[in-house]
Amino acid sequence: MTEHTIEHTTGHLPEHTTEHTAEHTAEHTAGHGAEPTAGRDFTPALGRFAPPRYYDSVIALTRERLWRGLLAMHAAPRPGEVVLDVGTGTGSLALLVKRIEPQARVVAVDPDREVLALARRKADARGAEVEWRVGMGDALTDVLGAGSVDTVVSGLVLHQCPVPVKRAILASMAEVLRPGGRLVIADFGFQRTPLMRLAFRVVQLADGKADTQPNADGVLPGLIAGAGFGDVREAEVVSTVNGSISVYVARRG
Fold first, then answer.
1. Distance (Å, rounded) from C-alpha 177 to C-alpha 158?
2. Which residues, 6+ apart, have CB-to-CB distance to 232 below 8 Å?
3. How far apart are CA 23 and CA 116, in angstroms?
4. What span, in angstroms and rounded, lies between the C-alpha atoms of 153 and 110?
5. Residue 40's pLDDT is what?
6. What letter does residue 76 receive in the DSSP assignment?
7. Within a 10 A sphere around the Cβ of 132, how many other Cβ atoms?
8. Helix/strand/coil for 52
9. Hey, CA dihedral for 186, 77, 86, 174, is it positive or negative?
């Protein structure tokens, strides 16, 4: 795993929308409904910090346009490909991928019906065709078949999960990807400097230290490799007011 730390400025921001919490409703996209996840626990988009409806405003403080644009750049969707957004929230990443490559099939999964409803409304307002599914990140083959996805993307999901769940989600991502398929994740990674470690305490206040500290200690590349991915690397690092966000890329072996 190689490290590639880059300081980015707002002058490099791609033009796209910047929202990430989506409301889930009981209705699914026609013909594409996944089974509800009643009884399964998950951490809401803003953790203990605030209700999901405030997510887009809060997440903008993390230089979201920048890291999300970098994530999409590394995903590089192509016509006819299947792209799966895991933990889509309000759907901003899924909508960006669809905007970049309208001929890609974009499927977006989240366990939170409240935020998926927000995502659907945003998509409807833009006339974007994204398949919104209720589902858990560690059960992705319940949404799409094994080996059926070309690219899996995910933003700010794993830091909210206990280490065993991080492993389970990554294993599920590997299972749903075709051989050679791409994985691109943006999340809080190794907090290299005292300033970033201090700033990251805001995230830990919202999401809890037990689940977030492994990310800050740099555990993600090893977990990604342990799930069966190769060519794992930290492609980008973006400093924000609440810690640094890393973009990790890998391929399914």
1. 18
2. 1, 221, 224, 225, 248, 249, 250
3. 3
4. 13
5. 52
6. -
7. 27
8. helix
9. negative
pLDDT, one tens digit per residue, over 109-152 is 999 999 999 999 999 999 999 999 999 999 999 999 999 999 99
pLDDT per residue as tens digits for the range 65-114: 899 999 999 999 999 999 999 999 999 999 999 999 999 999 999 999 99
User: Hunting for tokens 């499927």 — which residue is that?
Assistant: 107
**147 in Cβ contact with 177 (< 8 Å):** yes
Q: How far apart are CA 65 and CA 93, in angstroms?
A: 10
* Burial class for 106, CB neighbours closer than 10 Å (0-12, 13-18, 19+): buried
Closest by CA position to 18, among listed 86, 78, 120, 92: 92
Instruction: List, in order, residues 6 or more apart from 105 with CB less than 8 Å away.
Output: 80, 81, 82, 83, 131
Judge whether residue 10 has pLDDT over 80. Answer: no
Burial 148-185 (b: 16+ CB within 10 A, else e): bbbbbbbbbbbbbbeeebbbbbbbbbbbbbeeebbbbb
For residue 89, which of 18, 182, 171, 194 has the smallest C-alpha distance? Answer: 18
Contact 183, 140 (CB under 8 A): no
Whole-prediction pTM: 0.79
Cβ atoms of residues 72 and 104 within 8 Å: no
